[in-house]
Amino acid sequence: MLPLPSSTQLKPKPSPPPRRRFLFLLPFVAASTYLLYLVLHYCSSIPPHHRYNTALHYTPPWLHPAIGHLVPHPGGPSGPPRIIPGLRSARPMEEWDVPLLTNPSYAPDPSDTSNAILTSPALLMLHIFSTPTPESRARRSLIRSTASPLLFIPPQYRHLVELKFILGRPTPIVGSSSASPLWNETEEQMVDAEDKMYGDLVRLEGLEDGENLNKGKTWEWIRWVGTRERVGWWVMKCDDDTLPILPNLLPILLANRPTIPSYFGTSLGHWTGYHFYFEGMMYGFSWPVIKTLATAPVPAYERNTQRNEDAFMGELMFSLPFLHTPSSGCLPEGETVMFPRPAGAERNDIEDKDDSKNEKQIVDNTNYALPPPNPDPCTGLFRLDLGRRLGDYDHAQGQGLVTGNMEDIVGLHGLKNDEDYVKVYNQFRTQLEEGRKWEWAVPDALRV
């Protein structure tokens, strides 16, 4: 038999005196208080719409309706997104095929048969928006010669990434003093010579004013991309003052299937007065979205609506055609398409008034400023929010909207002068080379 425990063994251990317990907890209380101070100080230093977007980005969807009511923001849309009938009735995105990536192949250039153009599918079409001005021409030259995104790609795989500059074509109006505002005969000659030398310019014909940003240029670019011979997986629009970091971006894209209708970019910093969208500094689409937007029977007056182009593109995502079999979260279409509200919004949105057959929505308008369900239950669209990995250069310098880890950042915007552009490019190159991550690590499945 085991001996009974002695009385000394049964004696309970005395608890530390209250003062000692307080001293033990004091460092944790101080650290928590300081952390709370830092969070509150950070929140007070950024604009209200940034606080609102950040709160939404870092909370689960089921909390979004509460945040919409509790976190102050400058205002939101007063109703559901405008639906464009020609886009809603377009060919569904699920019907478009996505090509297989192959070794490089070429075909004669129709405009110059002495040259060959690349026709094999692209993993990424990186298209930088530019203008026919001397300043933009200098930036294009800088990007080609000193800070090309293609330098991130091993030479034998550069056929997988297409780099183009997207410009309008201002034209003089014969017999009128109201020529296109950017028309300059000397500059047009310089741009034509540049295109003959490098072959990387795309001139969009027939734009409003010959060149614009917020009157249809983006949609016209998409129509050009989606109806040309070369096809691809991902298509990205990039401002010429944004530095894309492809070694960090390409693995993210490859982790997502291009067959899924997708829209990617960052929502942090977007203006809450519009429906959900990704900021215009750098955003893109998977191939099925491009094809549907490119072939939709939408008249020019609808495509050329005067709107902030990034907000307009985000709004178009709500007009995409429905899946053949929408998921259970999709509301019925009815006479007017209803906005697929976030989880938590109730279905009590129909009321009869004076025996009228008209439907009236009485859902709280706060819901219209919230991120939509992901993926969208009606269209199947997946919104890939890059969050803090994409943002403004000055924020990365100290305001905190972009992470400081260079191995996470996929793009920095706001590099207006050439010195900043080259400096930031070299900073990334130096740090990524130290970590042996300067060149894109090509996955085995894509290696020849």
UniProtKB/TrEMBL annotation:
It is a single-pass type II membrane protein. The chain crosses the membrane at residues 21-40. The keyword Iron does not apply. Keywords: Glycosyltransferase, Golgi apparatus, Membrane, Signal-anchor, Transferase, Transmembrane, Transmembrane helix. Its EC number is 2.4.1.-. The keyword Transmembrane applies. GO terms for biological process: 4,6-pyruvylated galactose residue biosynthetic process. GO terms for cellular component: Golgi membrane. It is an enzyme of class 2 (transferase). GO terms for molecular function: hexosyltransferase activity. It is found in: Golgi apparatus membrane. Its main location: Golgi. Belongs to the glycosyltransferase 31 family. This is Hexosyltransferase. It comes from Cryptococcus neoformans Tu259-1.
